[in-house]
Amino acid sequence: MRPSARFLGRVAIVNLVIAAAVTMAFTNWTLYTSWRHVLEQFLVSLFITLCIGPVCMTVLPTVTPRVFARFRAPLNWLIVTAVMMMIAAAGSFFALTVLAAVGYINLSDILLVWLDNSLKVSVIVTLTVGIFFTAREIMRNRLKQATLALRTKERDEAEARRLATEARLASLESRVQPHFLFNTLNSIAALIPQDPTGAERMTGQLASLLRSSLDTAATPLVALEHELTIVKDYLDIERVRFGDRLTYHLQVDQDALAMPVPRLSLQTLVENSVKYAVSPNRTGGTIWIRGRLEQTGLRLEVEDDGPGFEADAELPGHGLALLRERLQMTCGPVATLTVSARNGHTVVAISLPNQVDG
Asked: I need a labelling partner for 349 at 20 to 30 A (CA). Which of 20, 216, 289, 308 fits?
């Protein structure tokens, strides 16, 4: 398949998914709603998406590398975000103009409809999807550059092993969960009409998670306090989705907050609990997050009241298997990850040595 055909295929899939998500969030449909009405709303959403999405997918890959080469964070992200917002505003206004020209809406209502709903939805959806794909492309480019450097530069054996380890760690960390992004997108879209401030806050939390994932290769270790901030952002996003079904408790010693931990390690454990303990249970579940200093080092625990699973049932490529491999690469063989049962609950624990080199 030619590159142009692959690009058009990605554009079509992404725009169809976004249009479907927006339609489900903003169309008050039930089992008795006419399918023609739902189809009509879907086609309108798809048309607006097609006026924005392809432009972003064409402009951002060209603009972003130049901006990131010339400016440093956070100015580079502010510029890219501003470009996304301008594309979203111009695309949504153009789409409404076309809809007015064909008689779907009144010409005099274009500005009102644009400012009342279309602009907000377009900007938030464009930022959410745009930041996600921009972060992913930046990570992919970094991986390509590391691989190219590994193949082209002649270095001694120790330097070659270091580069291979860094490239492998970046590859493990770049695994993306699209379902989480689209679930979050749906939640943001649902919040917009009733709680615009909450939608903006949730967009910021999602951006924080993506930024943390992007920075993993550069700074694989962070303070536990920073990791807890990421965990809270993640749980706040999921609580919008699950509501009262998701309950969590933090029990972390103050003297442990400055300890270095692998970035997104605790978040991976929490995400595992949400996926296997909260999501499949109609009544939800409770998660306990604990951290304390012991004589041998730092111990982190994530406990949930889900159905649990056997440690030997852990599959290659599973989140815990990947995390165990990251711990070995980042902190050495002394770092461990264990799965156990306690009073009918599942407890996943990480033990880190006192001395961890970043």
From this structure: 216
